[in-house]
Amino acid sequence: MHFVISREALLKPLQLVSGVVERRQTLPVLSNVLLVLNNDELSLTGTDLEVELVGRTRVDTAHTHGAVTVPARKLLDICKALSDDAMVEVSLDEKKLLVKSGRSRFTLVTLPSSEFPNVEEEPDTFSLTLPQKKLGELINSTSFAMAQQDVRYYLNGMLFEVSPDYLRVVSTDGHRLAMETLESKNDIASVQQLILPRKGVMELARLLEDEGDITLVFGQNHIRAAVADFTFTSKLVDGKFPDYNRVLPKGGNKVILGDCQALKQGFSRASILSNEKYRGVRVVLTNGELRIFANNPEQEEAEEVVAVDYQGDELEMGFNVSYLIDVLSTLRSSQAKITLLDANSSALIESGDESNAMYVVMPMRL
To answer: Is residue 7 scored above 80 in pLDDT?
Structure first.
């Protein structure tokens, strides 16, 4: 293998592909990126056996074709350290990869490409195509509610529910839930539910651009997506997602409309003096205003008053302030609509304008 490529052409795919590669691996080859040169196309592949990402780029001069794996992090660090307009010459000398640029020279150890794992091929069951920007919005507005390292492994991911008329994404960690629906005509006969693992969600989001469409192809155990120069494949989580309809609060008769930014700033300021471990705040709702109280074991206290559009009975509730701030930071509107029933029921939070996103935050006992 021997080729010449500009630093810029090599750096972008290398950065994205390296994001998939885990530093601490039981298999040494999984710390590597697979380089394959075919004609003037260089493909770079990274995987952790759960998520695989393939990036493609053009080389300026291709001398000898071939395939090899090299340490992903070291190759990335070398490319980052080179000057912006540098040309990079890469060649394979026995079991070492030589990287030259200007007066710099690096020698990297390699492992044979035959040791690099392939994602198993499986028949596709169905696919859907949607704008990349829309998929990015769906993921950004719901991914914060995914669990992290929960023993209920099916919560450490995002539910994709596909019906003939819509695509819905849902995430929950058991304390809060985020859901958004996109109307779309899909070529399937019945509702399908699949869970994409947390890392797959994050890597897919990094790939998305503001322009162009993306096609998601679902198999029995995998999801695959292709955009311009990248192919993304991820295993699906084998589990049953909880029935999110049972979590959506029903019968809320106290509706609050407030300025999203004012509410977020009020909760953020109050959170400074909340208990660092439990993050609880007390919310007291009265006609025309929402009062937020926080205190901590050092006997420090905060009180915030936010003007809201509300007329009705007084209500006092406790919430994890971080969960409320997360939702208010995500809403894509100037107004927030909060629907409540009583002190023991979850809060339903939506955009003040017409939006297909819904958020549920469970109350806290303070």
So the answer is: yes
